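Could you help me review a protein record that somebody else here produced? This is what I was given.
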Amino acid sequence: MLYKSRLLVLISLAVLLLQTIFILPAAVASCPSVTAANNNGITGSYPNQFELAEFQSAANCELTFQGNPDIAALNARIQGNPSNLSSVADRIPAEPLVVAPYDTAGKYGGVLNFLSNATEAGSSDACSLRHVNFVRYSDDLSQLVPDIAKSWSWNSEFTQLTISLRKGHRWSDGEPFTAADVAFWFNDLILNKAIYAKTPGAWVWDGKPAQVEAVNETTVKFTMPVPTPGLMNRFAISFIQPFQPKHFLGQFMEKYNANAPALIEQFGFANAAEAINFYYGGSDWKDVPSPLLKDNAKALTMSKAVVPTLESHVVVGETSLGRDFVANPYFHMVDTAGNQLPYINEYNEDYAPEKEVRNLKLVNGEVDYKAQNLFLDDFPLYKQNADNGQYEVHLTPTVGEAIYYSFNTTDKDPILRKIFNDVRFRQAMSLAIDRDEIIELVYLGQGEAMQATPAEPGTVDFLTDDHMKSFTQFDLNKANTLLDEMGLKDSDGDGVREMSNGKPLILQMFYANQGGPVKNHELVQGYWGDAGVNVTIREISTDDYRSQAGAGEFSVTTWRDANRAGPTISQSPFMFVPPFGDRWQPGTGFGWAQWHETNGAEGIEPPADVKRLYEITESFKTATLGTAASNKIGKEVADIHLKNLWKIGLVGKTKQPVVVRNVVGNFKPFKVSTYDYYWAFSFRPQQWYFTK
């Protein structure tokens, strides 16, 4: 025993001597708890998130990685995925994004239940829960922060953007994600005439598209025809994901797969474009029906039924009633304890077209989270039932939720078109609206009377009080005077003015409940009736509304004035020019837009003010938002819009209810509730978890 004791002592002394001579490193410490609530003094380049090397250096530790214990079972539900999952350390990128949870590292498991109106209707809120892009806005919406991209840089002229991706990143099927997938998205889809007969305007500058090049596996370069300093904003707030799986969609292209013709025939497609669009949907919009709903029988005969994704959750089931998603086994985020995100196992999205049904599900506690299509006039209902439904309801500031009305200045009826093109009519209709009453009855005293402006107040510097208050005062006498001056008289005394052909001025206004509080339309109907303009209102589905309004078939359009925030208009100011909106919120001047797009071959020639807007809007995109050059152009745009009142606004600075069940952990009230910053995207829903 004595011999053994002496031997152990000698060995210990030898180890100490070696450590002294060779200065062997001490064991790396375990990583400290780092959350947004308590960062333990550890900060990085961006708030509440780190690159792996950055975090380990700042914390003087080495992360070890853990995964969801249910991930193998979840992976088995993703059609076409390999069944033999590797370890979590092999599934996440070699350079994962390390996220500091708001309060605590969460627990795995559970199903998050939420609502949409229907497929592609009121579903952007649901998209935002699983969404990813190159970058996002930080939680306080103050700066761009990395997401899919690890870093990015511009040249001095803002004509060349270089984006660095994460080494070892994988698609949801385990295949490598590289810069080639970005180049494929642009060069083989966006510029592919068989997919897009006309290159989408969002990717054309001064009549020319960008150039996208994969420099190496983790570096992609965008070369722009003109300066585009706002391009990164687009990636931060848009549903468009500028990457598609080349390994999957490219298999139908003969340039990438010599066996593509046989594969196309095997799956029963007519050609490569039909095969790609079966999966891609002919659109970057991420909520088109998947193959599971398009043609379930055909999809199930294929190797995969859903396009691989980089999002936090992958669709595994779809019917006309809703969709089911499971956690992505290859998601690129981990928390500061090394746990792969997301924490929540499954998403369940139910479709409920009727507002009454959605509200019933909410107050019964059947919905874990909901923001989109909740309006302030229902806040008392939500608040009254919060305890029984075991949820919280937050009143959240809004951006892009102001309601507008437009009259079709290129209406197919020549008499109505003449009336609508007289600015006195638009001024009168604005003056006839009692906005103070609307604020009290619809917005519960919240908000301010505000005119529709081409940019969102509070996100730009060039709007003035005169812009926002123009023709917002309630003055029925002045409204009647303007209509009288136009010759729109009530000759027979029935309370309805007559048009030049002697027929009563009766307008039909269609609306969808997604477009704003119905009570607004009922009140406006009455106000305009008091001015002698008879308006009938009728609800139709969101899809029907958008397709018909976008085709210029309605005399009156109405929607929420979204997509006007500074980050949006800095790179895509389509709200500045006809039709002063897009397919999601059609405005007016559809014939003017057609005239411009066809160089005068079709449509209706617009007035001088509209032509001026076309001239200066392109210049606005090349100036950095907030600079003197940008503000000068922006003010001229606003002056022209407010002079013409192509859109009539109601109330600004409103608030919107956001409902979340008490059991959802790591949820913090949103800084704003808005499509313009893509709903929940900036607020990191991947870190939500169920507390019980």
